[in-house]
Amino acid sequence: MTNQFIKEYIVVAQNASGRNMNVPLYRFIGQQPGPKVYIQSSIHGAEVQGNVVIYHLIQLLKQQPIRGEVILVPNCNPVGTNIKAGEYTLGRFDPVNGTNWNRGYFFDESLIQAFAKSVHKDESLEQIKYRFRQQIKQILADKLEEPWGIGLAQRLNLKLQQLAFDADFVLDLHNGPVSTRHIYVPEYAKASASLFNIPHVILIPNKFAGALDEATFCPWWTLQTLLSEKYQQPIDFGVEAFTLEMGSQEVINFSEGEYDANSILGYLNAKGCLLESDIKPQRMRRVATMLKDYKVLYTQQGGMVEYLAKPGEPVKKGQPLAKLLNVDELDTPNATELIRAQCDMIPILHFPSASILSGTQLYKCFTEYFEL
């Protein structure tokens, strides 16, 4: 039994010459009904490893029968990918409007509250899901036709959100600057954190901050909560969304990409998306923190820095994280300074450059953490 495979292209922007900028969309449709999965990569231009993960997923899904449908959109932001400055990709912000490429998705809690009031007792979960999806997708379509127009980043986000909001499982593939693997997981889906082969987990609340995972799970989480209160019984629509951070930006690694592709298939198999598969999550130590305990260490001063603490390796309070060099003091004892850990922590990522200004986000760290 093989999956139906479809390759098509979607227009995400136009360049200054008026030519369409297309990205490929790879669609696998199973022979049996089942969940819909949406996976995208490289919404930030320098975060390219997800494209290798999708490459491996395509090779694996050519052989692996599925239930339902899997949609893969690699390099979903060709504008960001092509914003180069010398050796570096400056693809985190829309160059025209200055907007973070991952902050233009749509969410309106008042619309969800109004929808919850319209739900009737005799409607099935599938009927509610269908009607809710149709309403949100129509709003997205209307916004894309806004007569006054919208910014480039928001237009790109809304087009991708149209695809993602149809899915039951949404994975947005990212990379940190210099980073170890970690994953953002909504608190209500905590049990699913152990279904990925990712050792570091950030549990996030039902608070929309503009990203794709939040634009997916916040509406469903909010609707679940409202309907559970309305009918005095738990409601679960079975929709989950995650941001997967798979190492460092500006580099790709094919063997690591194969590892992450199999990690994703382990999750999808646990969710009933695969047929006749024995892929399972690895037994491994998984450490989690709440989003409020995922702290940023800012530098007090500028200079040149050597990063001593490696992402993913625990550090005790008082141990050195970095060593700073002040070029104005090379002839004095003040030429170097150690930056030490404020508490027991696990550094997850650090700034990519050795040249830093004061106020730079030097490290992001787990502070209060626990095993899953």
Short overview:
By secondary structure, the protein is an alpha+beta fold. The protein contains seven helices and 20 strands.
Task: For this entry, give a set of tags.
single chain, 372 residues, alpha+beta, ten-stranded mixed β-sheet, four-stranded antiparallel β-sheet, 20 strands, globular
Class computed from helices, strands and strand pairing: alpha+beta
Mean pLDDT: 96
Biggest sheet descriptor = 10 strands, mixed
Oligomer: single chain
| Number of DSSP helical runs | 7
Task: List SSEs in N-to-C order.
Answer: EEEHEHEEHHHEEEEHEHEEEEEEEEE
Stretches with pLDDT under 50, minimum 5 residues: none
Our estimate of the beta-strand percent is 25-35%
Q: What is the number of E strands?
A: 20
The 3D shape can be described as globular
Characterization of this structure:
With 372 residues, this protein is an alpha+beta fold. Helices cover 26% and strands 30% of the residues. The chain is built from seven helices and 20 strands. The protein has helices at 49-61, 78-81, 109-118, 125-144, 152-164, 212-231, 254-270; strands at residues 4-14, 20-29, 32-41, 67-73, 84-85, 88-89, 169-176, 178-179, 182-186, 200-204, 240-248, 287-290, 294-298, 303-307, 320-325, 336-340, 346-350, 355-356, 361-366, 369-371. The protein has a ten-stranded mixed beta sheet with strand order 1-2-4-3-7-11-9-10-12-20, sandwiched between helices. Strands 8-17-19-13 form a four-stranded antiparallel beta sheet, with no helix packed on it. A four-stranded antiparallel beta sheet has the order 16-15-14-18, with no helix packed on it. Helix 1 (49-61) packs across helix 7. The mean pLDDT is 96.
